[in-house]
Structure formats: C-alpha cells, structure tokens
Design brief:
Helices cover about 0% and strands about 70% of the residues. The chain has one domain. The protein is built from no helices and eight strands. The strands form two sheets. Strands 2-1-5-6 form a four-stranded antiparallel beta sheet, with no helix packed on it. A four-stranded antiparallel beta sheet has the order 3-8-7-4, with no helix packed on it. It is mainly β.
C-alpha cells in the first residue's frame, strides 16, 4: 500500500490511500476533488523516496467530504480578590478529506 507525507496548510500529514484526515479549512465544496503537489516523502513497501524539499512529480489527490468546526478551546482569566472573571471559547474551522490517490 502506498503512503506519503504531504504538506497541507503549513502542516505535514502522513497519509495512505482511502484514509480520512482532518486539515485546516480548505477551499472547495463537499464532493470536490483537490490535489496537493508538496509531497515530502513517498513510499511503496520498502522503496522510499525522500524529497529535498519535495518529491518531483508526486501528487496526492483527495476528495472533500465535509467542512466542520473542531473541538472547543476555552480560555479563562481572572484576578483574585477583584471580582474579575472572563471566559472565551473558540472553535477552529476544519475540512475532512478522503485520500483517493497517491501517484509518483
């Protein structure tokens, strides 16, 4: 089974074909096909190609499954003896991708 390390949105993800991954928000409607050219490592069994910085001619194709919000991160601050409390929450936008093809 082919595997690769691909850079998406400034982060690197190890991927296999037919795998689902969650990445920072990407442009594209659900069902759209996307392609990534910045493949850092490409492997098939024992044969591994390491890019410097990318593997020439290698691409990873994926399908956009959905856009969603991630888990909530809560931030709070307070000052003791001052009756001062603040609480904020944030949910990062994410895209779920299914890897359809890894090609050299």
């Amino acid at each position: 089974m082919a595997f690769a390390v691909v850079q998406i949105g400034g982060l690197q993800y190890p991927v296999h074909e037919a795998e689902r991954i969650v990445v920072p928000l990407r442009v594209g409607e659900p069902g759209a096909k996307v392609s990534f050219d910045s493949v850092r490592l490409l492997g098939e069994g024992a044969a591994v190609k390491v890019g410097r910085p990318v593997v020439a001619g290698a691409t990873v194709e994926a399908e956009v499954l959905e856009h969603r919000k991630g888990a909530k991160v809560t931030v709070g601050k307070f000052k003791r003896k001052r009756d001062y409390h603040r609480k904020k929450g944030h949910r990062q936008d994410e895209t779920v991708l299914r890897i359809t093809r890894i090609s050299a």
